[in-house]
Amino acid sequence: MAPIAMRLGATILPQMKFHRQDFLDALNQRDARAARRNLELPADMLLETERVGEDRTQIENWMREEGLEFARAMLEHTAQEVALSQTWFPILQQFAHEKRLASPLPEHASLSSIDHVIHRVLGPKIKSKGSLPQIRESRIPIFSAPLPALPFVMAEWSSTYANSIFLTPNELEEWRALYRVDEDAPWWNFYYSWDAELDVVLEEEWNISPLSPGARTLLITWGSCVGPLAGSWSQELWGIDASGAEVFIEDLGCSVA
Fold it and tell me: Are 157 and 144 spatial neighbours (Cβ–Cβ below 8 Å)?
């Protein structure tokens, strides 16, 4: 019988060749990274970085870690985002202004008992517990909440960002119907949303017993997102009993994109 080393030779040699190639690839990648560390932003990219308000350090890091073409592509993406913001933000501002003229913010004394319940339930969730980064002023935050809670949202968040927009959930849906761009267009806005839906039908999968006579359901939804695949949303089910008091029923969980 042949020695073990000879019998394994057919297996050992290809493995040695494979490991050697991995080693050479790693060296080449190391050398490429080292070469990129000495790169400087081309003059045209430097000017564009300043024009669109991008973080120069971030662009330089992308260039040195991922290469010049990747950094250029990311800068072009930012330029598209800024162009969309410059085009659409004035339209959005006018839209929000017209909505507040048509539906002014309510005075606290004019709120109904249901409005007060919504305000009490949403209030702790509206309070700022950390904020998403705005990155640049062309990235516009849009806040949505039921009209009775909107003054509280504005008081809590107006000083956090520049150029904030405040709408009701229905108004936000109207805006989305008006905003027409390609599906793959860059996002120039990010969202904080709070909603309260009265008299929702209990879903079977919630496994919740029927409410007492005279009680009403109140579905609370809140969350934030910065893109189609970057956000989180939570839901709770509350009840309003016959006396008009709110009663917590169930935490319906959180979804993360």
Answer: no
